[in-house]
Amino acid sequence: MTRDRINPSRRKLIQGTGLLLGGAATGLLGLPQGALAARAATRNTDTVRLTWGPSGALSLLAKERGVFEKTLAAQGIKAEWIGPFPNHAPTLQAVVGGSADFAFYGSTTPALAAILAGSPLVFVQYNVQHPRSTAILVKKNSGIDTVHDLVGKKIAVNRSGLGEFLVVAALEKNGLSRDQVQFVYLNPPDAAPAFGQGKVDAWSMWSPGVDIAREQFGGKDIFFEGADLPFYIDFGTLVSSRKFVTENSALVRAVIDAYAAEGKWANENLLESEIIAQKAGKYSDGVRDHLVGLKRLHRFYEADDAQFLGDFQRAADWLSERKVLPKHARVAEYSIRP
């Protein structure tokens, strides 16, 4: 794909200004090493390629409303939407493969797994929806009423993602080990029919998939993240490649700010934002109204937010200790504030 380039004089001005501001920010903030990598404001393209899909609530909203694109266009940036993608993992592959510049806001866990496997990805901002509504779902007539009843059963999860870690946490909380259940690794589009057809006994899934499945397949929760898990082990994040962020930190900043504005609109317009999601997801008014009733709000954290990074590090340690992630990761090394 041909990328639009800005003229050299404009680039020099942007970079020079960024060096002055970046140096001042470094002295004031004392950022971690990873967050310093893109402190100089750079921009070497006028086009940004963004992934989107039904699971990427904020990207879907930004694409459908069109305000996001206009905000970037006012800064001389053209937004191109790549997708739809069923979940976060393939968006990471698109960034690594060079067909996209940003994976949409999705689970930190598959992103960390990809990074630990050698992918040159970095986190540029975090976005967490509160309250969390991921759940382990079974059918009402399955005879499964508690987490203990999952022993020997098949559970559909997405590998190294939100679904898998929630099951691990639920088992541990109930004194069970992961080898007492059978994990079936499926992406959401394959997990839904597998659950509906009885090929798996349970499904660990996030909204709106879990909410649709409750209605469509007569499902019930036996473990609900918002009520049964007292801490977060996974967060939403905006991911790009280290090279792109280093070469285009001014553009990345513009994208982050545009997404933050989109999140603010969503927080202030819960029904309207859920109607947009409903149209894309093709689910009932009942599911939509349930989601509106959850009153989920977006909260954004900069990549150098010390308190947030502390929480994220504890989560990453928890995941690596339980082999959801293959090894330990120092999350600040992969977190860059443009």
UniProtKB/TrEMBL annotation:
**Pfam families registered for this protein in UniProt:** NMT1 (PF09084)
Where does this protein chiefly localize? periplasm
Occurrences of domain Solute-binding protein family 3/N-terminal (ranges): 47-269
Please give the SUPFAM superfamilies that the UniProt record associates with this protein: Periplasmic binding protein-like II
Which key words tag this protein in UniProt?
Answer: Signal, Transport
Keyword Transport tagged: yes
Q: Where found, per UniProt?
A: Periplasm
CDD domains, A to Z: PBP2_NrtA_SsuA_CpmA_like
Q: Which GO terms describe its cellular component?
A: membrane; periplasmic space
Q: List, alphabetically, the PROSITE patterns matched.
A: TAT
Q: Which GO terms describe its molecular function?
A: ATPase-coupled transmembrane transporter activity
Query: Which family would the database say this protein is a member of?
Result: Belongs to the bacterial solute-binding protein SsuA/TauA family.
Write out the function statement from the record: Part of a binding-protein-dependent transport system for aliphatic sulfonates. Putative binding protein.
The name on file for this protein is Putative aliphatic sulfonates-binding protein
Which organism is the protein's source? Pseudothauera rhizosphaerae
